[in-house]
Design brief:
Helices cover 83% and strands 0% of the residues. By secondary structure, the protein is an all-alpha fold.
């Protein structure tokens, strides 16, 4: 009986080669994912003007589909009549809001913009009176050549930024064209939304019909992931919109009660900014605290009251609103949420990436759990 030929590699060498191949495959997968995200970000940046009205209409349609189905079922009307009735209710509510709420909010917005120079003056006077050593330190080192070069460099950068962002008189026509294009894109959202709401059927059934060329197991996985993504998007945006509106009203009420100037406008603005998690809180603290400190009649007591209002509203959001309205649908740690906001904001090149950061991250977490359970066990 012939003896078996000796193996080319020893057992430890084969194990080492296997580990190297596994690492190379993992690196290739990561490279493909990063490349896909990069290409997707560039495509979204290139076609953002076309895609964001479609995305807004699609998200609104997913959120409002249960309302259309309820109207259709309760009133025994056709799908077209249910959608038309929902649009009529929305137009009536928006008109009422424009008549009653928008004028005082817009008035406070204009007053706030006009008050910014006075706020800066009050801040400089306050610092000069209460912290003269800081001013003396700054004046003593103002002639430092290194600081002068740094300030000149910052001035050059600021002028460059202004030159790039502020249109000249020659480009005024282009600015008007951009503004007109934005208005047209906003106006087309209701048209997209109307036809999206008219469509029937669940996304999962349509996906399964379009993926019939795939194997049954892979098709089931893709249908499951598609359904999960839609459920996360609907749950997140429906809940986040409601939470943001409630937080805005609570902040506006609290700021108005404690006597913060422009409290109605600032509270509603900070609440609405919380559609992007933590954005309203960060911007609110950066604006409300200096305003409370330097406004006429303000001071550290008013700063404390502003922080108390923020803490109370934030506690209600974290302990009551989010658990009751959204539950643990995304299941993401706060650190993961903050990282996702920055990552997707950069990857998808702008605010749209930050808005979609939580649904996209939750979707990839769900996909990873599925892959780990089915294929990496």
């Amino acid at each position: 009986m012939p003896e078996p030929s000796p193996s080319l590699l020893s057992q430890s060498q084969r194990r080492l080669v296997g580990v190297a191949l596994a690492l190379a495959a993992a690196a290739l997968i990561v490279a493909v994912i990063c490349g896909s995200v990069f290409v997707l970000g560039r495509l979204l940046a290139l076609f953002a003007g076309v895609l964001w009205p479609l995305a807004v209409a699609g998200i609104l349609a997913l959120i409002l589909r249960p309302c259309v189905a309820m109207i259709e079922r309760r009133l025994h009307v056709s799908r077209l009549a249910a959608v038309s009735l929902l649009f009529a209710v929305f137009v009536g509510g928006a008109t009422t809001l424009l008549i009653l709420a928008i004028p005082p909010i817009f008035s406070q917005l204009l007053d706030f913009v006009a008050y910014l120079p006075s706020l800066w003056h009050n801040a400089t006077v306050y610092v000069d009176q209460h912290y003269p050593t800081w001013i003396e330190l700054f004046r003593r080192h103002a002639d430092n050549p290194a600081l002068q070069r740094m300030s000149e460099s910052l001035a050059v950068e600021a002028r460059t930024l202004i030159a790039q962002t502020v249109p000249s008189l020659k480009a005024a026509g282009g600015g008007l064209l951009v503004a007109g294009s934005f208005v047209i894109r906003v106006a087309i959202i209701p048209i997209y939304l109307f036809f999206f709401l008219l469509s029937r059927g669940e996304l999962s059934s349509r996906m399964e019909a379009h993926l019939s060329f795939l194997g049954q197991q892979l098709r089931d996985d893709l249908v499951f992931l598609g359904g999960e993504f839609v459920a996360i998007v609907v749950s997140f945006f429906r809940g986040q919109l409601l939470i943001s509106l409630i937080m805005g009203m609570l902040l506006a009420l609290g700021f108005s009660i404690i006597g913060l100037r422009f409290g109605l406008f600032l509270g509603l603005a900070f609440g609405i900014l919380n559609i992007v998690p933590y954005l309203g809180t960060i911007v609110g603290l950066l604006i409300a605290v200096p305003l409370a400190l330097f406004q006429p009649g303000g001071g550290w007591e008013l700063v404390g009251l502003v922080l108390l209002v923020k803490i109370i509203v934030q506690a209600l959001e974290g302990w009551v609103l989010t658990p009751k309205i959204m539950g643990a649908r995304t299941g993401l740690h706060p650190v993961a949420i903050i990282f996702a906001l920055f990552f997707w904001g950069i990857a998808l090149d702008g605010l749209l990436g930050m808005v979609l950061a939580i649904p996209l991250t939750a979707f990839f977490v769900t996909a990873w759990r599925l892959v780990k359970r089915k294929y990496l066990a």
